[in-house]
Here is the input.
Amino acid sequence: MSAIDLYARATPGFDERVADTLDRLADAAALHAGRIVQATSLGAEDMVITDLIARHDLRIAIATLDTGRLHAETLALADAAERRYGLPIERFRPEATAALHFVRTHGELAMRDSVALRKACCALRKLEPLSRLLQGRSAWVTGLRREQSDARAEVPFEEHDADTGRTKLNPLADWSQADVWHYIAHHGVPYNALHDRFFPSIGCEPCTRAVALGEDIRAGRWWWEQQSAKECGLHVAGPLSDEIGGAPAVSPLPEHQTR
Ligand code: SF4
Here is the structure.
């Protein structure tokens, strides 16, 4: 059964949410002309946003983090999206020397040896490239949704970081998982093939596994760690997002079965 079969469902107010989302993106594109970027994880939510940007010819650049450890399916999706939309998706990669030094010093699977090493890996493969991705930008767009977790229950449509002077836009904040997949189904939006194989949250290949029905949607991420340690450094207050470099979580079950 595909992710669309599992999750896509028309919900009341869907058309209005799509229209409001488009308005928010169009307003931001005009306000931050030439200085706004979608930082896509290539997850389902981000693919919806990319589709809206392309469909409505919005002046919003698109960029992603290629950590060097992504699944082949994720890399293939980036290429497929570029072909589909005729838009470049700029890849930001870790500094080659730093990545090589880390692997030579600590090993290919060092992230499983300790939380500290895992965080160090995330820092060099995600945090540092993300800081470059955001350089010169006054605004960036993410696919965060309030429904994704308790920690995101208050995600605003827009937030301003006084330290960086940068605005973060979360235009899908009020979308449900059913909305996301209904949009994907309706518009034939390309999505990561791993979603059809019970990978609800897709990060780097060594740090992601499929989950079983009924498991927590984050259970497949850094599964060898205690739940409380599952912070990658992107998921902190401020301008960074956990979802960059890994797809936003989707439940392995339809929403009505997970509540
Ligand atoms: Fe490294 Fe895993 Fe973090 Fe990717 S998710 S940057 S492989 S520790």
